[in-house]
Amino acid sequence: MEQKMAKVTVNGETKEYPCGTSYRDIVDEYQKDTEFPIILVTADGRLRELHKKVKRDCTVKFVTIRDHIGFSTYKRSACLVLLKAIYDVAGKETVEKVEIHYSVGSGYYFTINGFPGLDQGFLDRIREEMRRIADACLPIGKKSVSTADAIALFHQHHMYDKEKLFRYRRVSRVNIYNIENYEDYFYGYMADHTGYVKYFDLKLYDEGFVLELPERSDPFTIPPFAPEEKIFRVQKESQEWAEKMDISYVGDLNDRITREGVRNILLVQEALQEARISRIAQQIVADGSRKFIMIAGPSSSGKTSFSHRLSIQLTAHGMKPHPIAVDNYFKNREDTPLDEYGERNYECLEALDVEKFNEDMLALLRGERIELPVFNFVTGHREYRGDFLKLGKDDVLVIEGIHGLNDKLSHSLPKESKFKIYISALTQLNVDRHNRIPTTDGRLIRRIVRDARTRGTSAKDTIARWPSVRRGEEANIFPYQEEADVMFNSALVYELACLKLYAEPLLFGIGKDEPEYLEAKRLLKFLDYFVAVPSDDIPRNSLLREFVGGSCFDV
């Protein structure tokens, strides 16, 4: 019988391959001409692991470890290799659980429970075992099992967090990955063998250790270990509060929602945030010398709602806050600098009239009366509409803008007059012990929902713009976050269960032929883990109202 052939187009070149040829075999032909290792492919726009086989004519594009999806796959594969190495060296009987928590530097923070021997010597043994596994290029196997069988398997392996998670999945089958005798579930694709995991290190940190990994911009180099202590402490505090509520993983949240509803969880979370905002206000009042409350944070962190709630707390403590939006100091549109693509760059510091901002703020500090500008985003020009301000003894300015923590923005203001606050949505919930929820995913879903509601922007357009937003954050916000006097975590443990109802219809609207489809599909799969809850009980002053609507603030 004549073997059926398939026409495969790569880089504009079409070749014939027998149906059943693995994508690995095709990749091996082209890898020598590719700068970075190819870890996945797309076949007619659908993402494929390299062990998958060609079934029909298709156009194949390569995904390397330098690409966003490919780099995520690299990091995920490194975590799998790490877990196998830990259990190989320590023994399953001596380790209660290994848990991934959150990002630290360019890597991930892990803890090991039930194991007394965590020291650098132990990490050195783990590192050597990881290198052995990587050098051996062991196959990373993948099998599809029924959801019922997966639940039984997780129970057998004492992975009760995964067992609980899949009780609520509507899918009929689950993909299980393995390296030799170690089996686990991971949310997302894997490399087809361990040989990809060449660049990593292990370092003791706090109560656990950090798996150091490269950055996507340079996937062959481990950058110097530079943990950000302040943001780590905020994340750890949030995690501890989640543990006190017995909601560390998505399965825990689903259990609570199905047993008792979301109201109590919601009320406790909102109360915790309000208490934290009150403590920040008390700190500002107790200092007595701070006139400029500088608030900064990445996109969709809830800066606007936070500034309103902080202002209310400051008022309750006897102060008179006045909101100032740094955006009102934008230069006129024709004077806005251009980025490397020849488009106006509204996110760089140079897009602001820094000197005028400093002139006005110094005048206020001297007790002078000034007229505040308003930027007209329709005309692209700064305007004056009779908004005068003079600061008295108890008056403070609550200044919100992405450059708020950068001293170049407020270079002429005395340091002692500024109180800096960094706000971000640092998700304290993980899918399970070995699958974290990236902070950026939570913020992206917030933004998709808000953009559709307030700006008429499609999910497709929001996803398309997200890489540019992230580049702006990396350049203008994250380098200054450790300069903050305090940090505030705006994430709510229940929010993704609520946002699911709003985000899913928007994501389903992205067609399979659109470049944003892969990201939409990934987010839909992620949201499928959550039991959805309505927004009815969310208070009108909640930070989440900034995204789902119904806020009592002008947001």
Question: Which features characterize this protein?
Answer:
555 residues, alpha/beta, Ubiquitin-like (UB roll), Threonyl-tRNA Synthetase, Chain A, domain 2, Rossmann fold, 3 domains, 5-stranded mixed β-sheet, 5-stranded parallel β-sheet, 15 helices, 37% helix, 20% strand, globular
Describe this structure as you would to a colleague.
The protein is an alpha/beta fold. The protein has three domains: 5-64, Roll (Ubiquitin-like (UB roll)); 86-228, 2-Layer Sandwich (Threonyl-tRNA Synthetase, Chain A, domain 2); 233-548, Rossmann fold. The protein is 37% helix and 20% strand. The chain is built from 15 helices and 19 strands. It has helices spanning 23-30, 68-90, 120-135, 147-156, 160-166, 229-244, 250-260, 263-287, 303-316, 354-365, 439-454, 459-476, 495-508, 517-527, 545-548; strands at residues 5-10, 13-18, 38-43, 46-48, 58-64, 97-104, 107-113, 141-146, 173-179, 182-184, 201-205, 208-212, 292-296, 320-325, 370-376, 381-389, 395-400, 418-424, 486-489. The strands form five sheets. A five-stranded mixed beta sheet has the order 2-1-5-3-4, covered by helices on one side. A hairpin with a 2-residue loop joins strand 1 and strand 2 (13-18). The relative contact order is 0.11. The mean pLDDT is 94.
**Content-based structural category:** alpha/beta
Q: State the strand order across the main sheet.
A: 2-1-5-3-4
Uncertain spans, ≥5 residues at pLDDT below 50?
none
CATH superfamily of the largest domain: P-loop containing nucleotide triphosphate hydrolases
Q: What percent of residues are in strands?
A: 15-25%
Average pLDDT works out at 94
What form results from the Cα inertia axes? globular
Whole-Å distance between the termini? 68 Å
How much helicity do the residues have? 25-40%
